[in-house]
UniProtKB/TrEMBL annotation:
Residues 4-154, 156-325 form the MAM domain. It comes from Leptotrombidium deliense. InterPro entries: ConA-like_dom_sf (IPR013320), MAM_dom (IPR000998), MAM_domain-containing (IPR051560). It holds the Pfam family MAM. PROSITE patterns: MAM_2 (PS50060). This is Apical endosomal glycoprotein-like protein. GO terms for cellular component: membrane. Residues 358-377 are annotated as: Disordered.
Amino acid sequence: KEILRCDFDGNLCDWSVFNGSAIFENGANSSKVKINGPLTFIFSSGSFLKLQKRNEIDLLTLVSSLIKTPPKSVCITFHYYLFAADSKLLEFYKTNEQNEEFLLWSQLKSTSDKWRTTRLSLQTEEKSFSLKFKVLSNDVAFDSIFVTEGNCSFDGFCDFESDTCSFKQEEKNKNGFYWKRGKNSDSPGNTLPGVDHTTSLHGGHYLYTLNNNQNNLGVTTLSSSVIDFSFGTHCLSFWFYRQQENRDELNVWSEDAKDATTRRKLWSTIDNDFVDAEKWQFAQTSVASTTSFRIVFEALKKQTGIYTTTIALDDIRLNTQPCTPLASCDFNIDMCGFIADVSNVTFRHGYGRVKNDKNMQDSYIPPDDPTTKNVKC
């Protein structure tokens, strides 16, 4: 059941803009986005919302109407675009009747030059509340914001920034070994990853295994909700972190949605040769399906004498297309597991546009993307 929705097809619906103005764009057909802004729609038609700040000082906000008598839990979905040369602020809040603000989500750096989708599960206790975006950039665009009843389910991607996306673990076993959602500051002794993979920030979230009993070994599993993709071969990718000198094991399984005993191993740290350095590492594996299934992550604690975390997970993605070789990438969708060394340069994944075309020669033409004739790379 939908509680609130706006596709920004020429109007703001139940939303209001403060300290700025609303501009409704239609992608590459608009001259205003030749240099920055989305080149395409999130959907096939209509328009999207770009926000124009009134000045450089005031914080621009996009605020929803009051949501009255909400259900106990809701799923908030929004599509946003944020591609900028410098780090920019984008924050999302819930505001109660007393005008108190509660931060639900934030993005503090530029993303790739494409639309991104965020889904947040929110437990509601108030009689009414509103939603608010705080924007500190003219390079932000929005499309299709909607609120539905019930928690969000796993829809093919989870970055753990707001919740676990319906991934569920078995009950905490007697050995005190289990999965937990958290961030770097949660662990005494700073044994967790310094930053998450999604945001590369200390406050970014991920899942990690926690061991409360150093004398016991253990096994803990994490299962997705039922996935009902079409028949065929899909690609599961994820980022994982394992402490140096740690030999605990991570396995990935698929299981039939109706029969948990029909597990098939997809991937394991045992079968793959990875660098043991303490950094996020990329992994992918094919998933063949003829029926509905679940994805199961299994962590095995194989060392005693360690109290703290062993393995962390972030940015789990299930695509409907087969995996491509790790060294093969056209960069039209994402970075394909490539990691940019940004120690000396600013690296952006985009489509060949420049921030200020006045600095370019009249004869300059961005290079063609050899893999497609529709966009620049």
